[in-house]
Design goal:
The chain is of the alpha+beta class. It has three domains: 76 residues, Aspartate Aminotransferase, domain 1 (Alpha-Beta Complex); 83 residues, Arc Repressor Mutant, subunit A (Orthogonal Bundle), CATH 1.10.10; 52 residues, Herpes Virus-1 (2-Layer Sandwich), CATH 3.30.40. The protein contains nine helices and ten strands. The strands form four sheets. It has a three-stranded antiparallel sheet with strand order 1-3-2. Strands 4-6-5 form a three-stranded antiparallel sheet. Strands 7-8 form a two-stranded antiparallel ribbon. A hairpin with a 2-residue loop joins β5 and β6. It holds the Pfam family zf-RING-like. Belongs to the NSE1 family. It catalyses: S-ubiquitinyl-[E2 ubiquitin-conjugating enzyme]-L-cysteine + [acceptor protein]-L-lysine = [E2 ubiquitin-conjugating enzyme]-L-cysteine + N(6)-ubiquitinyl-[acceptor protein]-L-lysine. It comes from Agelaius phoeniceus (Red-winged blackbird).
């Protein structure tokens, strides 16, 4: 409660401004930024108090329907921070930055990724959608450029021609994804955050992040589902 009542200092404001201009900030960068803002503003700094520092900012953002959220990268398990607008959880928040046709390509790419078995969509499959868009058809070359922009803006990430949702996208659109893909979107049974790059139990249907699967089954000779205890039929990563 004391935290909630605490005043926003210039250090808090500077931290928030940088976070907003970054789009998404990796955990170690956020910790450095926390120290820098406190020292510049000559306010109390403790290396283990980043979450409290953010809680104070969040208490002041609440009336504006905004929040700094922490999310974990599906690739490497590192923490990331992003400022989320709670008033618009839809893809519409991207509407000011992209054209209608670009947004349609993004939605269709999101469909492919979320409906896939492992949380990835190949560039071939995405580019095949380009000439089936309702808004207007898009040339493959154009579509390649648009995908590049989505990667630069940290909505998608790409590895060896395979695309998945960037950590920023997962943090900002978790609620949108859970409510719009109710039949397929699931939270990880281990860490309870939205799981895109995941494996799903064939028996009871729970999902686990690939990194959580790796950690959970480490050292087990016969991997079994943490919920129903049936044999885990996938190759563990």
């Amino acid at each position: 409660n004391n935290l909630m009542a605490a005043q926003m200092t210039n250090a808090h404001r500077r931290f928030l401004q940088v976070l907003m201009s970054n789009g998404i900030t990796e955990g170690s960068e956020a910790r450095k930024l926390h120290q820098h803002c406190c020292e510049t503003d000559k306010v109390y700094y403790a290396h283990d108090k980043l979450d409290d520092f953010i809680s104070i900012i969040n208490s002041h953002l609440q009336p504006l329907f905004m929040q700094i959220r922490k999310g974990i990268s599906e690739d490497d398990g590192r923490a990331h921070y992003a400022v989320v607008n709670l008033a618009e959880t839809e893809v519409t928040k991207m509407a000011s930055d992209y054209t209608e046709i670009e947004l349609e390509l993004f939605r269709k790419t999101m469909d492919l990724i979320i409906l896939s078995e492992n949380g990835f969509a190949s560039s071939t499959d995405i580019l095949n959608l380009a000439d089936q868009l309702k808004t207007k058809k898009m040339k493959k070359k154009e579509a390649e450029q648009v995908l590049k922009v989505f990667v630069e803006d940290k909505w998608l990430s790409e590895k060896n021609g395979e695309y998945t949702l960037h950590t920023r996208c997962i943090i900002e659109m978790e609620q949108y994804i859970l409510s719009n893909y109710q039949d397929v979107a699931r939270k990880c049974n281990i860490c309870h955050s939205l799981a895109i790059q995941s494996q799903v139990c064939e028996s009871c249907g729970i999902g686990m992040h690939l990194r959580c699967v790796r950690k959970y089954f480490r050292g087990q000779t016969e991997p079994r589902c943490p919920k129903c205890n049936e044999f885990w039929s996938y190759d563990t990563p």
